Amino acid sequence: MVAIIKPGKSLRRAFQYNENKIGEGVAKLLSMENFPFGVESHTYLRLKMLEKVAALRPDVAVNSVHISLNFSPDEQLSNEKMESIARDYMERIGFGDQPYLIYRHNDAGHDHCHIVTTNVTLNADRISLHHLGILKSEPARIELEKKYGLVKAEDHKKDLFSLKPVDAKKVRYGKIYTKRAIGNVLAEVLANFKFTSLPELNAVLNLYNVHAERGEEGSRLYRFNGLQYRVLDADGETVGTPIKASLFHDRPTLKNLEKLFVKNDVARQQYKKRLQTSISFMLKSKRPKSLQELKALLHREGIRLIPRLNKDGIIYGITYVDLKTKCVFNGSALGKQFSAKALLESIHLATDKGIPGAIISPHKSIATTSKPYSQPDKLNRGFDTNQQNFNNEKSLLELLTQYEFAASSVPYEWRKKKRKKKRKIS
User: How many structural domains does the chain have?
Assistant: First the structure.
């Protein structure tokens, strides 16, 4: 069994997520615990009860607790057993006296249930959520696995939550599968990958056959900063019906993504050096002769090289996705030598047949004639020839061991103050 706890600031959002699943025919309300009325009551009353309890402590901002209990695909649990496990779990983590709802979901390849409750008690106390997973949830999970003979989380957790590309063929069966499949990909990518722009996000999403789009410039969707998600087929073409970002549980709207961009830019900096070193190593030691060869070399290191093309099929940029550190960088963000123009010139692709000789802006469509790499055009190359040759002559050892520039090797605060010489009194 795997337990996932998601604290939040909106009881209504967690509640509606599960009620919408019932409306789609892929969920069922198993039980209502510590409510003054039964399951047959109106939906509105269930939400109102939870919100009234949470309102007892208006100073508690995070008052929503959304829990999912996931079981192995090899286990087929009855409604009664799943309900019993959920009750036992809530008792062990200190929520046994709280009003909570238990929903069984049937929209995945494994049995699982969702629990919606609040951490504000009927006595207007607050149940601490700090380290709830480590201190209470994990011990409860281990005890319940033994008590009910469940498959241990360590035996199936990796298989249960492995992210797989969306099957474009199933999209045609209906909108419910499309939303669920896209939602699974978004939940994994947004929580774990560090990207700082929509193109960088799409570089990751496209690996799993999902694409985020703002619509054409001037369209209603674009003018109101809207965002929608679509499924891609094997050829990279969109299929199925687009789904608005606001319809997903985590609300991956453009406004919320922009907050992530700022946060991720700081978080990814510590992994920048690994990516720079890996790419430089492959270029210096393996000397690839084509972009496909370089892509294959980086693929072995868990790095995906993704060219960005304009409408004329000309490469104007390159994005790198590091699957080991879960970081995404545009070439220019890594450094000038990792940009599309510099990279293609370094592997002599500027003169290969079938490869564009000029790397141009996505807003331009005029390609200039290319010249051999050994004699780059001074107007187009943007850097000094002697400096480039000097960099190429550096050995691999020097590349890997070179110091980063620093204004001073010793911080100012650590420097010893010079002793002032005493004046001699004559």
Answer: 3
Q: How far is CA 68 from the centre of its chain?
A: 20
Amino acid at residue number 76:
Q
Q: How many whole angstroms separate alpha carbon 404 and alpha carbon 330?
A: 21
Going from the C-alpha of 260 to that of each of 176, 193, 398, 400, the distances in angstroms are 27, 10, 36, 32
* Contact residues for 146 (Cβ-Cβ < 8 A; gap 6+): none
Task: Count CB-CB contacts under 10 A for residue 308.
Answer: 17
Give residues with Cβ within 8 angstroms of 198, minimum separation 6: 212, 214, 254, 257
Q: What is the mean pLDDT of residues 1-8?
A: 92
Q: Which of 137, 136, 129 is nearest to 61 (CA)?
A: 129
* Domain hosting residue 208, numbered range: 168-265
Tell me, yes or no, whether 40 and 132 share the same domain: yes
With beta carbons less than 8 A apart as the criterion, state whether 2 and 110 touch.
Answer: no
Q: What is the pTM for the complete model shown?
A: 0.56
- 213 CB neighbour count, 10 Å cutoff: 16
Q: Which of 337, 336, 307 is nearest to 320 (CA)?
A: 307
Check whether residue 252 and residue 302 sit in a common domain.
no
Statement: residue 25 has pLDDT above 70: yes
Distance, in Å, from the CA atom of 419 to the CA atom of 155, rounded to the nearest integer, reads 66
- Does 69 share its domain with 144? yes
pLDDT one-digit tens code per residue, 229-287: 999 988 888 888 889 998 887 789 999 999 999 999 999 999 999 999 999 999 888 88
The answer to whether residues 103 and 224 belong to one domain is no
Give CA–CA dist 119/98, Å, rounded: 8
